[in-house]
Specification:
The chain is an alpha+beta fold. The chain contains three helices and three strands. It has helices at about 15-30, 40-45, 65-70; strands at about 5-15, 35, 55-60. Strands 1-3-2 form a three-stranded antiparallel beta sheet. The longest helix is centred in the first third of the chain and has 13 residues, at about 15-30.
Length: about 80
């Protein structure tokens, strides 16, 4: 059974810097973010593609608002 507390991936990044910019924007708007693979790709950049990139996730209940903020910032969400 799905709940609104689940995290969903809204964007996958190749570079941690790109992710950090939009993450800061979302968090400044009060949207809690969770990042998968960020540290692994910083330590071993060569594995980025093999592990699927850096995934930016937000709560399912915040996904629509987060995607709208991303679009306003000129970045298309994956979802």
């Amino acid at each position: 059974m799905e709940t609104t507390d689940e995290f969903v991936t809204i964007k996958t990044f190749d570079h941690p810097g790109d992710m950090a910019v939009i993450r800061a924007r979302l968090e400044s708007e009060g949207i809690e973010c969770f990042v998968i693979n960020e540290l692994a790709t910083q330590l071993y950049p060569i594995i980025n593609q093999s592990i699927g990139g850096i995934k930016l996730e937000v709560r399912k209940s915040d996904a629509a608002a987060a995607m709208e903020i991303m679009k306003e910032a000129g970045m298309e969400p994956d979802a």
